[in-house]
Design a protein that fits this description.
By secondary structure, the chain is α/β, with parallel strands linked by helices. It has five helices and seven strands; from the N terminus they run βαβαβαββββαα. Helix content is 31%, strand content 22%. The protein starts with a strand and ends with a helix. Keywords: Hydrolase, Magnesium, Metal-binding, Nucleotide metabolism, Nucleotide-binding.
């Protein structure tokens, strides 16, 4: 098992969530920015292709095994969009990039839309090296409904508008440890930990 793994992201929220989930493996997760590695291109239309591109870039530049996450919101009423464009969603409607603007743009676009079903999707890809022919791939989905206004103080991204029927709350209303255990990223990370134990031990 690699003691150090480079995370192909500089998102502090993702780093903290994933770091906590990899504790059982004794792996130290290092953000690529700490190693002076810039962001990879993400030209693809699927989460798995973008995550793979990010992981390959980070592994090649660092010489370390790499973990990448590509995640987004898939809204049923929009045919699965914004999908891979989730981070830049607000910019399509003239807002600056950012979580709060994304939430605002989404609620505006969904005014008058009755089908509120959506899924937060996280695809994790791990590579032993840039040329690893057998990437580990784990996908987590958290299915819920988009609320009509933000509720809750925790989390980041779309958490305040992602209502999870099983809890009767939005992700932003759940304590972080409960959210992390049941989020798209939490589900994907648990699968990834199992895959790493099985394949990389």
């Amino acid at each position: 098992m690699p003691p150090r793994l480079v995370l192909a992201s500089n998102n502090r929220g993702k780093l903290a969530e994933l770091q906590a989930m990899l504790v059982p493996l004794g792996i130290e997760l290092v953000a690529q920015g700490e190693l002076g590695i810039g962001e990879a291109e993400e030209p693809h239309r699927t989460f798995v292709e973008n995550a793979l591109a990010k992981a390959r870039h980070a592994a090649r530049e660092s010489g370390l095994p790499a973990l990448a996450d590509d995640a987004g919101l898939c809204v049923d009423a929009f045919g699965g969009l914004p999908g891979v464009d989730t981070a830049y969603y607000a910019t399509q409607f003239g807002y600056p990039k950012g979580d709060d603007h994304n939430v605002r743009a989404l609620l505006e676009q969904m005014q008058g839309v009755d089908n509120r079903r959506a899924a937060l999707v996280s695809t994790l890809v791990a590579l032993r090296s840039a040329d690893d022919p057998e990437p580990l791939i784990a996908v987590g989905r958290a299915v819920g409904e988009i609320t009509r206004q933000p509720v809750g103080e925790h989390g980041f991204g779309f958490d305040p508008v992602m209502y999870i029927p099983a809890f009767g709350k939005t992700f932003a209303q759940l304590p972080p440890e409960v959210k992390n255990a049941n989020s798209h990223r939490g589900l994907a990370a648990r699968q990834m930990v199992a895959l790493m134990k099985e394949r990389w031990a």
